[in-house]
Amino acid sequence: MSNQLILIAEDEHEIAEIIGTYLERAGFRTVTAADGALALSHFQHFKPDLVVLDVRMPKRDGIEVLRVIRQSSDTPVIMVTAMAEDVEKISALRLGADDYVVKPFNALEVVERVKTVLRRARPGPSTHGRQLTVGALIIDETAHSAFVAREAGRSAIPLTQTEFTLVAHMARTPQRAFSRAELIDACLPDSDTLERTIDSHISNARRKLELAGIAGFLETVRSVGYRLEPLE
């Protein structure tokens, strides 16, 4: 983990410096950006392993930066917000954020969130070489990627790390209904994720599957939660 690069996009210099100091003490490399435009420039140039992204920044705010990142990359993103309103958190999650923290926060909390999100993004030893197929959906757990099978080959589905983790977990037992609490325990055990947050991640994943031509695979099970590949 000591080689991983974290982009800190934060316009408050003192906060950026504190986050950077704690991350570097934990063995990470860091690069900072004080506005949204520079954050996107750094993202393209340095290709960080994870982005800590403040919502409210000059030039281009964090929501816009996240939207641009998600157009071409599934790099993990943790949003930082000064407002505790759920609407702002859920807005970021719907755009593809992997997690969020609310100011004021303990810098050690940010470090732990970074470690947790990166750990989820990294395939574990038990999944080495494993490929799951559910209909036209292919889950490659080694590459940590999802594909749709087509006659001409297979096309990648741009799931975020959290979306991939949720879909892959359900793909291991297709047609089984999972409650939101089960999905949190299995896929995001080290976070304080709310059940409504799971709804946002599943909604994003469903939309991407449908855009890839896999409609109806991620089904809402009333009063329970979700399942992959609905029963005929």
Description:
The chain has 232 residues and is α/β, with parallel strands linked by helices. It has two domains: 5-121, Response regulator (Rossmann fold); 125-228, Orthogonal Bundle (Arc Repressor Mutant, subunit A), CATH 1.10.10. Helices cover 40% and strands 23% of the residues. The protein has eight helices and twelve strands. It has helices at residues 13-25, 36-46, 62-70, 86-94, 107-121, 161-171, 180-187, 195-211; strands at residues 5-9, 29-33, 50-54, 77-81, 99-102, 131-134, 137-140, 145-150, 153-157, 178-179, 218-221, 225-228. The strands form three sheets. The protein has a five-stranded parallel beta sheet, with helices on both faces. Helix 1 crosses helix 5 (107-121) and helix 6 crosses helix 8. The longest helix is centred in the last third of the chain and has 17 residues, at 195-211. It starts with a strand and ends with a strand. Mean pLDDT is 82; it is low at 125-129.
